[in-house]
Design goal:
Blueprint lengths: L7 H8 L18 E9 L6 H14 L2 E12 L5 H18 L2 E9 L7 E10 L15 E5 L4 H10 L1 H7 L2 H9 L7 H9 L4 E4 L4 H13 L2 E5 L7 H10 L12 E5 L2 H9 L5 E8 L4 E5 L2 E4 L7 H7 L8
Parallel strand pairs: 2-3, 7-10
Antiparallel strand pairs: 1-4, 2-4, 5-8, 5-9, 6-8, 7-9, 10-11
Protein name: Hydrogenase maturation factor
Pfam family, one: AIRS
Organism: Faecalicatena contorta
Length: 323
């Protein structure tokens, strides 16, 4: 099968289609009190796990959950030393402390069956009553706003994996500017500001990048959309790194980048900028089924989610793609 997330067709045909409803009742009674999120990352860099931790913390914040406990399961290659494991845990604990969360469980084991270390992160938190229900539905006519930078997570992960190579390609100041963007990975303040501004939908950008996120917005809400690609915030550092490796930043994972919808997109942008976040109004949700992306005078229909560009980067061995 193709790398990356399963397509919706494969999921419905070969996963959902094989599951059977044995009993027509829930295991637990309905509750809004607790919610769980999970994420997985892999890579040689010692700090790779912090991206999984940032993702689960942001997902819980979207649903108004806290305080948060994080549990980790880590698969290590035999080449990883104890000091390397210690460094990995330190990076993830730092992210948790910054967010006011706590690591409560760590299970780690060494496996000869994997090529790179793998980190599974699971976070649990209680729904805060004052936050109300999780904003999960866009309505036709609402504005679509993007908070954060397109492809930022993927850029930072590539930097972590290829510091020496990128150091030969770019000047030190450029790499320092990239490293400073790590603070953008945690989006709790922006998420809280969006909630106060009355958002009806929030979704963190995952595999497949912002294009996949827009598709998921439309699927989840049963709406169409019209957005302008040129309005999407993207850092020059991301553009430079993606050009070097032949990657599409709009199809690259980006924890900390949140899609939102609201009646007044301009007011939402101001609210997000008020807490120091970068935000832009991309377009509107529509009653039609069409999912249209404009770029200047050119318009095209949004394709089904493609494999994440970071996965393609790994597939090509982390090397520049032939032009």
């Amino acid at each position: 099968m193709k790398i990356g997330n399963l397509s919706q067709t494969v999921w419905k045909r070969s996963v959902l289609g094989q599951l059977h409803n044995v009993q027509d009742k829930a295991l637990f009674s309905p509750s809004m009190e607790e919610i769980y999120t999970d994420a997985v990352v892999f890579g040689e860099a010692r700090d790779a796990g912090r991206f999984a931790v940032a993702r689960v913390l942001n997902d819980l914040a979207v649903c108004g959950a806290g305080p948060v406990n994080v549990s980790l399961q880590i698969l290590l290659t035999p080449s990883v030393s104890e000091s390397g494991l210690k460094e990995m845990i330190g990076y993830m604990d730092e992210v948790c402390r910054t967010a006011g969360a706590q690591i409560t469980r760590v299970k780690a084991e060494v496996s000869p069956c994997i090529t790179y270390p793998v980190v599974f992160a699971c976070a649990a938190g209680g729904i805060q009553e004052e936050n109300g229900p999780c904003p999960s539905r866009a309505v036709p006519g609402q504005d679509i706003v993007l908070c954060g930078y397109v492809g930022l997570e993927g850029t930072l992960r590539i930097l972590s994996e290829r510091k020496e190579e990128l150091g030969r390609r770019f000047v030190p100041a450029f790499l320092r500017q990239m490293k400073e963007l790590e603070s953008q990975m945690l989006a709790a303040d922006a998420i809280a500001a969006g909630r106060r501004a009355g958002v009806t939908f929030m979704h963190q950008i995952g595999g497949g990048g912002v294009f996949a996120g827009l598709w998921e917005l439309a699927e989840a809400s049963g709406v169409g959309l019209e957005v302008d690609r040129t309005k999407m915030p993207v850092k020059q550092e991301t553009i430079e790194v993606c050009e070097y490796y032949g990657l599409n930043p709009y199809q690259m994972t980006s924890a900390g980048c949140i899609l939102m919808t609201a009646e007044d997109g301009d007011a939402l942008v101001r609210a997000l900028e008020g807490v120091g976040a970068r935000a832009a109004k991309l377009g509107v949700a529509t009653e039609k089924n069409a999912r249209v992306i404009a770029s200047g005078e050119e318009k095209r229909y949004l394709d089904r989610p493609a494999p994440d560009e970071l996965m393609l980067w790994w597939e090509q061995g982390g090397r520049p793609r032939p032009r």
